[in-house]
Amino acid sequence: MDIKEYISSGIIEAYVLGLATEEEVSVLDCIRQKHPEVQEAILEAQRLLEDLATEQALSPAPELKDQIWATISSLPSDTPVSSSPDDDSLPSYVEEQAKVMKLPEQRDNHTLAIAATILLAVSLGGNILLYQQRQESDTMLAQAVAMRDSTQTLLSAANSQWELLQRPSVKTVSLAGVEGRADLKAVVLWDTQNASVYLTAEKLPAVPQGKQYQLWAIVDGQPVDAGVLPLASAEQVFKMNNIPQAQAFAITLEDEGGKPTPTLSDLYVIGNI
Predict the structure, then answer these.
(1) Percentage, residues of the chain above pLDDT 70
(2) Any transmembrane segments, and where (predicted)?
């Protein structure tokens, strides 16, 4: 993993802002333990947010306290002050003083803080958007790779079947469904020259748990084990046991691992050569 690329992907900002998913947080926690630079990037992002929050806070100017005390001290000591909240007879010069006294402006600092916050938000938003786009791109890439692999598997199977069919010594034996299973079918490609046997069984239903299809060669009226079909295989053409001679082929459903003799009540397809 490229740590620099991971840090710049936006996941750090998403984590600090609480936008990361549980899975992303779990991965980040593992990575930060092994890579100090990731931990430092997290701390730096947190410090940046705290600094911006502090800078944006407004506090009274230090000279304001002195101005208030100076105003109070300038009042005559014999000026009557009413204790009643309804008394409006305050001296006019106090009102005038209140009118002209202004707070020192902190607009510049406030503007800078707002600008910094906006820049941070834009930066974080850009990184998060980039991170989300990369995740979507990774998903699309994974789907494309899976589709490519599937296509290559199908093409390889088609090429294998085509290559077998082009051999003069290969016989194609169609296996049709027995009574009650007429919609089932399979195909055996039998090379009479080297005794190799290949089977395609796309038209057979999925096997139940603990069961497995088994191919049989009928030789002089007796069934000969030609092997079991692999379970959960992506292949479409299966290499079976070599059969030097045969008059027919059949497939039965047996217990997983196969049996030495076929269960005729579970005969699915059969075909003569």
Answers:
(1) 63
(2) 111-131
